[in-house]
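Support request, please re-run this one:
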Amino acid sequence: MALSVSEFVTRLRYAVEAQVGEQRVEGEIGSCKSAGSGHIYFTLKDRNAQVQCVMYRHQAMSCRVRLREGLQVELTGRATVWEGRGSLQLVVSHIREAGLGSLQQQFEELKRRLEQEGLFSPARKKPLPPFPTSVGLITSATGAVIQDMRHRLESRAPWMQAYLMPVQVQGKGAEAGLAEAIHRWNEPERYRLPQVDYLIIARGGGSLEDLWCFNEEVLARAIAASRLPVVSAVGHETDFTIADFVADLRAPTPTAAIELTTPDSAILRQNLTRLDTTLQYSLSRALQTARLRLQIVLQGPIGTPLQALAPFAQKLDETEELLSSAAVDKAAAATAHLNVLAARIHPRALLLRTAAARSALDNAERHLISTATTLINNNRSALKVHAANLEAASPQRALERGFALVHTDKGRLARSTDDLPPGSQATLQLADGTRRVQVCADHTTQ
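Re-run finished. Output below.
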């Protein structure tokens, strides 16, 4: 009895799946297309044969290889027969670029050799400038990478000057262009380039083959020889290249390179506000301390007034100098900082706000210095008046004018004749010494 076509193809499918099953096959991708369902259909061929292949959507979503015509691949698939057309095909479950094992071996060998030479040593890595003003970007002039970096730089550090040197970042010869770009930035006068504080080499993610130019020795040695700090921002966070190990800083993504190497303008504004608050608080505390010390001098016990006041008068002079110097130094530092920011920020609105802030800071500086000077002068004048009053009221001055102080035999100051009964002893305190006397009924004898 003859088989129907469906029965025949079904038996053929069973036979192929049973006898061939899952196999690992290497070849070149021919035609390749993606369906609206997410499935990918392509042919795998060599010089003498070809076979139809399909990668279903759930496998295609996790595939890291960008399938394209002419790409050499090694795949794992299950042989079957598509009954709708009666054609042989491979249902692909895994695919990777052919030769990756060889590339990975080259990567490890070069990494080991350069590490032995010390090119990865932390001791040779150059520090990044804490407050850069310019950066040289070495990347492709097209694509999302340069735009993302530019937008992040404008929002985070708008005073920064960024200069792009466009280069090829993939394919044969790209490593030579990258190395030459680094060399040119290190000799800006010779190549008529602007001076920059550091360099960033960047590109987006890709396969090991796509990123291979960043694993070439010529680029690694160009990074190591650079006098300018070099930041490597290649691929995604999980991608590592030889350039990452040699660079002075490795950033997980291109935009992260901007964040890791530039200060945040919002934080700078907060620091400036905090500096102004600290200055005002320090001046207030210093004035309060001087006022308290003056009150202690005026209220405390005094033997010889001028001698007791002399140290405090000297301390007041020192406080005046310190206050004036601190006000001038802090205001000058803050003004200089504002001047630097104002000179480097291009948007007109930022320049106007900076100028207004600088004017307010100048007014605050003059007001603080004037207030401190006036207060110190007033305190010094009051101190002199109190000193003169104390000197005039001193008991020693009364004794020098011929007066005497009479003390009873118990050492108390005699204020009435009742304190000196006849026959008692008394002490007379004169300007130049004391005398013991005896009190009589009608006269005093020594």
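The mean pLDDT is 85. The first strand starts at residue 22 and ends at 34.
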